[in-house]
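Annex B.
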Amino acid sequence: MKRYDLIVVGAGPAGLSAAIEAAKLKMNVIVFDENEKPGGQLFKQIHKFFGSKEHKAKIRGFKIGQDLLKEAEELGVTVCLNAVVSGMYMDKELTVKINNQIHHVKGDSIIIATGAAENMVTFEGWTLPGVIGAGAAQTMMNLHGIRPGQKVFMLGTGNVGLVVSYQLLQAGCEVVALADAAPRIGGYGVHASKVARCGVPFYTSHTIVKAEGDTQVTGVTIAEIDNKFQFIPGTEKHFDADTICIAVGLSPMSQLLKMAGCQMEDNPKRGGQVPIVDACGQTSIEGIFAAGDVEGIEEASSAMIGGRICGIAAAHFLGYMDDAAFEQQYEIHQQALSGLRQGMFAPENRGKILTKTEENIDISANLLEKGYLDDSEIEKYPGVTHTIGVHPVIECSQNIPCNPCQNACPKHCIKIGEKITSLPAVDETAQCIGCGMCVASCSGQAIFLVDEACDETYASVMLPYEFLPLPKAGDTGIALGRDGSPCCEAEVISVKSSPAFDHTHLLTMKVPKQYAMKARFFRKEA
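4Fe-4S ferredoxin-type domain-containing protein: predicted structure tokens.
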């Protein structure tokens, strides 16, 4: 039986981060993962992360995955793939199936970082081919280059549903609609807004009645529900669709921890059945830790930091780290983690109905119900100003932990301050030079550069653009408003691409002056 200082189960963001921290301290570490490739969910995530520089903000998930794998390799971490850990027993012994053989291994410490599985809901026709999880759709697109379908209906408006809907649009699919049984959109408003301005409608307080089709999905019927989740007769709506994506949450894959005898609890705020852990992720059994979604559903940024805490905690447990060094490193990681657990979407706010931002601004009901800020309410946010010449317009209206825009601007036009969840504001005394770095850096694609009077008749609007093929200067088309409806004719002035923009192209279009504060997306004429 082989023995290791640390066994990590799961080569996702939490597991790799834990292994890296332990390997830095010269521990003998092995990571088991059941998949053909390491990296977990990171390599499906082509969007940019939120947070600050220390949280890998404005870096795309797959790039973070590449960096973690490179660092683990350089530190000598052994990553064993196609390895299914089927059991965890007394004395930290594991059984692992590799190449159809069962191996017994033992760890002086163990970190379980097995992640989470997609939830499913049942409805008439839910077993038809074409009904898939949103994560499966993301895998098909971003790992295998396969479109899940041509016309896709999305159930669920948490961040997974919103992000995958946008990526479906990027892949050339038509997203016919999003629906959610809840009365409000569950994910970040900026994610919803970039979907809405592409013309995709949202239906809150709605869910699926049935999937249509005999041998595969050909359509979907939804209906509005009351406060007891009962269908309201006469509210049925039909959509032609060949694919139905389900994004109704995740459940921690905590079976190994339960098998080992760790104390468990049913905690809806953490995603379901989870281990009871201390501040370092240690379970009720000394030397067994839980990191990432298996310990409680959060974003990948939090999983990575939680993994690092488990890694140093395992090292401290085995004597590879003294008390002073551990406490110093723990405090650094804990501060970084606390930064992500602030704002409207903080764990303690789950299930609460918030009506005001931290700045005492009314939270947009229109954004929560329809996915976009109404033209009549946009002016109340501190990122929206009117100055002569080019200036940033920041349509960020929720207290989300994110601040790359503040550091991206070379002229310091944008200020957030020390509190990472504060709404970004524009310093009207600073001179914007129109470089577009703030537009490219915004993880939520919520910043636009506007010149409200670039000449006597027209205004210019620079916006983030992540679709192919790229338009080119001189192309004409339609400018879409925040709600995705056509608002005016538009002409492309320029499309800028740069390695510094990390695949976020900056499209500048010319629109009639009266639409400077309304036009937010460009659609080329067919």
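The mean pLDDT is 95. The chain has eleven helices and 28 strands. Further annotation is deferred to the next reporting cycle.
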